[in-house]
Amino acid sequence: MSKKNIEKYIPEAMRVLKEEFSDGLKYFDMLLKDPNLTPEALQKVKTTTIGSLSSKANDFDYVAGNELKKLLFAGTPLGHSSLGTKESIEKLKLINIEEFIKIKEQFPDTGGESEDFSSRR
Question: pLDDT digit string (tens) for 31-46?
Answer without folding.
Answer: 888 888 999 999 999 9
